Amino acid sequence: MKLQWNTLLEKWRSRPGSAGAAVVLGVLAMLLILLSEIWPSGTGAAAPAEASGQDAAAYQTQLEQRLSGLIGEIEGAGQATVMITLESGEETIYALDTQSGQTQSQQTHVLLEDGTALEETVYFPAVCGVAVVCDGGGDVRVAARITELISALLDVPANRICVEQRSR
Q1: In a domain, 69, yes or no
Q2: Are residues 118 and 142 both part of a single domain?
Q3: Pairing label, strands 119-123, 105-109
């Protein structure tokens, strides 16, 4: 089979105009690649993003609910209510297109078909502090375990975590 392939290649190379045909095929292949980059892929437009305040609030609520459930599983903690404060809203980094010339370069945001900028990365807001009110918060050992748990999960220093006893 390999011998036949080599023979076919040699016959094709020896034909007049075959080099020109190879160049034309190469140019056509490059044009198809270029058009595939420019032409929309049809995978669907990006869904419109919600307002940053809504996203940050949803993120905060989700964290509070998950922590409340997890703390409730700690022996001696009992039912827990958690409040989290966030440093700021979420931060969105947009994709940039850099065009460089001999003397200068220019950066512009990559725009989608609907005119919105392409989001490259979205950073959720950092947790500033955590307050926990639970049934076992008056026990120093339980409060220490809760503080360690929160510190490990959210990377928040212990001095920004407060655990208190629920009033009866």
Answers
A1: yes
A2: no
A3: unpaired
